[in-house]
């Protein structure tokens, strides 16, 4: 006796067929991973060769730490990353008693990737993000929320910077050592 395939068996097979077809399509359009070879690949090694210049202020310290955590120490720096930050906190949403009920924290970074040997600017770009903060009756809670927003924004902007630097290093031909 022949039984028809049940829907529970058809769906996984169909999903597998679609995934295989999509995988072949991606290969045909020549997409490549940004980090081929993982931590030992050329881009990962290039990121490890980027030294982050000191950035003034608490926001600068947070940004530099976030960048260093993603790229490494830059001990044998072939590249230098110069970053200038613009951190703004503005009040929004006035309440009926003329107090601010909401704030917006914006962190913008202008950065340059510089080849140390030649002094050439390989990348000149900006990255930024913003966060909304509720202002509550407790000043301590509001300040804590502002600081947490700055920490989170530092991580978000650092991720964007590292992605752009990695893409640029992936496009840069490797020099002879």
Fold and architecture overview:
The protein has 177 residues and is of the alpha+beta class. The chain has one domain (38-171): Double Stranded RNA Binding Domain, CATH 3.30.160. Helix content is 44%, strand content 28%. It has four helices and four strands. It has a four-stranded mixed sheet with strand order 1-2-3-4. Helix 2 crosses helix 4 (139-171) and helix 3 crosses helix 4. The N and C termini lie far apart (71 Å). 16% of the residues are buried.
Helix content: 40-55%
Mean pLDDT: 81
Count of the separate structural domains: 1
CATH class: Alpha Beta
Order of neighbouring strands in the sheet with most strands: 1-2-3-4
Contiguous low-pLDDT stretches (5 residues minimum) are none
CATH topology: Double Stranded RNA Binding Domain
Could you outline the blueprint of secondary structure elements for this entry?
Blueprint: H1 7-28, H2 42-48, E1 50-52, H3 57-71, E2 79-94, E3 100-115, E4 121-134, H4 139-171
Parallel strand pairs: 1-2
Antiparallel strand pairs: 2-3, 3-4
Helix pairs in contact: 2-4, 3-4
Core attributes:
177 residues; four-stranded mixed β-sheet; alpha+beta; 44% helix; globular; Double Stranded RNA Binding Domain; 4 helices
